[in-house]
Amino acid sequence: MKQEGFERLHAAEWDVFEAWLDYRALPKRQRDARHAPFPSQELPQRYRHLCQQLALARDREYGLSLVERLHALAQRGHDHLYGLQGGVGRKVWRYVTGGFARDVRAHRGWVLASFLLLFGPQLLMMLAVHLKPDLAHLVLDPQQLAHYEQMYSSDAQHLGRVARDASTDFNMFGFYIFNNVSIAFRCFAGGISAGLLTVFALVSNGLHFGVVEMRLIQAGLGENFHSFVIGHSGFELGAIILSGAAGLRLGFTLLAPGQLGRGVALAHAAHELIGMVCGLAVMLVIAALIEAFWSPLRLAFPIKIGVGGVLILVPLMYFLLAGRRHGS
Amino acid sequence: MLDTLRHVTTPELIELQLRPAGLLPRGLAWCIDFVIRAALLIALGTFLSNLGRAGSGLWLLGYFLIDWFYPVFFEVWRGGATPGKKTLGLIVVHDNGTPVGWSASLARNLLRTADLLPFAYGCGIVSMLLHREFRRIGDIVAGTLVVYREKPVLRAHPAHEAVLTPHMPLDRATQRALLAFAERAPALTPARQEELAALLPHLARAPSGPQGAARLLGLANHVAGRQA
Question: Where are the domains of chain A?
């Protein structure tokens, strides 16, 4: 078939397709005012026809301008067909009600490793500082230590804050989100350095916690400190451990990609991990809410411990029990 | 291979062509986005400064969202391009050519922190310069590409009156060469045009009609689908 005949045969079809693409590109309000050139459910079929015509045009060495036009149309149709982000709400709901817990359980080895990398150094440091208090200065200088002691001193109006910067709860909420979620994201992304940055982040945080906790206990402020941290520690430390687990997995994939190419293996791993990273970001938002609005309250120690215990159990039970029924 | 064109076969068994964008256009796009983000943050700061200390918490929240999710928002909801990329005609796609989705967009923007190291996008720049498709670390991990998405325009070359039909079928490489020649001809001296035309004696010479560059331009008109 000559190019001219081919064009005559299909030109109307191409014009309608192009009109439909232009119609879809309009803002929603203008779209409602007009009629669609053809109903959306016809897109796949019309797109496949176009693809076939493009292939024919290329095979028969038709003119370049025609091939380029069909290529452009096919490209736009392709983007429409494969770019649809359907059912986001339902996907999120299913992830929250079980997918997240399943993901975490599927990575339990990494979660355990991350857990040990955080709490191992913490316990070691607590022991070390307990035996030899001066070891604290390896991690923190005296000024910082004094700052912490002031934060949890018994005459502080709000726990966990220095009296002189009278920050509001809301101010602290913004700060906690900004600070903690950024740290967790970096802990995950740092995994690309073969896990080194992730390990460093976990261990240094563990050492830091260990020193602060032991020094505050030694200064007799342990009760204040624990009553502040216990409320949000379940969500916050849980999320840090998960971000560490995701980072370690990413780093391990870089080192040992298995049977795939390194780039492809990394893309697969990232695709599997990204849901978990979103989940832990939400955990940190919850932690920030608790830390900003509940933890600083000065209530009786047993109440704080009781509520704190429940708040630690909630994420634990979720990860252990949620999403079992659908199985995978 | 010097050509950076990447061919992607779709499930419909046709080939789409993606042209990855290099360091400079992407750097420029980043600069434009940086200015927009800075402007947003300053505007937000001026507005929230009326609210006192709660305002500064809100500002940090805004800073956090803009810092991490500004590109994600545009890539997923605004056709794969932040305003900066749009200005330069760039777009983010999966490496199979499909528009970028949630997980890939999040991954490539979270991994930005790795590209930022040790300072000023050091790792990202090295990775982009070494990769044949100019991917930074985040692009490799997310499986995405930044490609040019300009509207294919067959540039109107100055219409040459003659439209000549070739004596033999022209393959696509020849057609492409003819069109490229016709597009560039106005920028070349007549002597250079003839010099180039002499490289294709079997096309540029004919028993009758115009000869040399003029004949090639006439053939190009035919290839471009002009009617006599």
Answer: 3-85, 108-326
